[in-house]
Write a structure and sequence with these properties.
By secondary structure, the protein is mainly β. The protein has helices spanning 2-13, 15-20; strands at 30-42, 49-61, 65-75, 80-91, 98-110, 114-127, 133-143, 146-153, 160-167, 171-179. 10% of the residues lie in helices and 62% in strands.
Amino acid sequence: MKKIFLIALMALACTPMMRAQETAVRVPSGYQGFLEQGNSFRLADNFKSAVGVSTTHGFYFGQHTFIGIGIGIEVNKDFTVVPIYTALKYNFNYTHQATPTFQVRVGSFVANAVGSYCDLAFGVRFGSSRDFAINVLLTGTLYSNCEREKWIPADDENYGHTETYTFNPSSIGLRIGIEW
């Protein structure tokens, strides 16, 4: 996680240098696909980390706005969450290699139950002269509360009981991905 975070910080620090070397950037249009990997830290439960991957597919409407649908998976040793969402992405300046971007994902998730999901991300899109870009995003993800059951063993290992508790996998994190 530290290596990925340092790479993302170096990429953001190099943005002004890249602007001096700008070349023609392909204007996004039509179908685009995204594949993103992220590391997140739960807001509750002492900031336990989780790893996730997601894919989003849709279309650019104009040069700035992308609308698509996607699915992901986020895994921690305590939980697994599968969000299914609609994504809206806005690129502020599509003619530069490095441009600010904002993304909203809204949908549902499946864990032990079904709940609502919302993800807000802000970052930088590094475009190229071909149909390809790299995105580095800081994220905030909100999930509705879930109930889980936990087995509590008694003194004798053959006996015990289950307890139901509520948890919330909401998190903050860093997501890096490719766009084609």
